[in-house]
Amino acid sequence: MVDLRNILPIILVAAAIALSGCATSSQEGREHYFWPPPPNPPRIEWLAAYHSQLDLEKTALRRFKEAIVGEDAPITLIKPIEARVDSAHDKLYVADIGAAAIFVFDLRHRELRILSTQGHDLPEKIRPIGLALDQVNNLYVLEPHLRQILVFDPAEKYLRAIKLAKLCQRPAAIVIDKTRERLYVADIQQDKIFALDLNGNLLFTIGQPGASEGGLNRPIGMAIDSKGELIVADAFNANIQIFDAQGAFRRSFGKRGDSPGDFQLIKAVAVDSDDNIYVADGRSHNIKIFNQSGDLLLTFGNYYAVSSSGKIAPGGFAIPVGIDIDSHDRLFIVDQLNARIQVFQYLSNKSGTSSTTDSQQVK
Q: Going from the N-terminus, what domains does the chain have, and what CATH number goes with each?
């Protein structure tokens, strides 16, 4: 009697070859969503949302396997908090504090897996809250309970740990200046930012507790613009502060309030190729876009609970807590309570969104 388990892999490979020529894109015929609405020129387009491997287009091999042995139980995001995109390898890394894991959406091979920490004297489960990528796409994972940054290579192999215990009391966010090979770590208990080299050696510190210029009160997110300036999201001061590459305060904008351009609860910050500044507001459930002077250009998104409706709801957020913008100006926004990553495209006119004279707010 032939053992099906022995011949199944051969059958699957043969079927994949046979079916590969008739696969069609699931993107054909999809609806398009833009902000702001016509007749204004579009600046943001919704592309996709990722919650589990069911959101990845199936390979021919996967389709045939499911026809034979049935579908595997999906791996799903639970409470994502941060996302980073390795565009060179088409990987989306997601830190999930609910699952105590790093999810790897391998977009090139259309697979979803969990980053392994086994066999490296690390806990079986980690509690990651921050991610960063260096100039060669090594992944840096902030584990605040260990007070360490765990470093993995692009093949997801663990390399080393950067220990923060002698510097930080409550590290909450990290970002890497790839040009200067510099690692910034924000501490929300000391209300300061540590500038380190990529080996963890201290270079200098930025900020001090307070509300004056350069004063910080819960620095919760950071980004680097094209000039090497450090853009800091200050949650409790409800503003965005900007420091130069030497750590000197340059300018700030924003305040707490309900008017257009005001902040309620800042969660994250990012910049696009035109150096426009994107701010995720967790309480307003939207994303605000500003130019370098702090002028509001566009607001998009509003509250929507996907679990109660089952709809995709492009641009509907339930506490957006993270943003990453890749080299292709794709926005990856962490939609936390909807347990998904929404993907958008910034549509630059190459004269910069900052040339827009009227602010547009989309509900």
A: 47-345 (2.120.10.30)
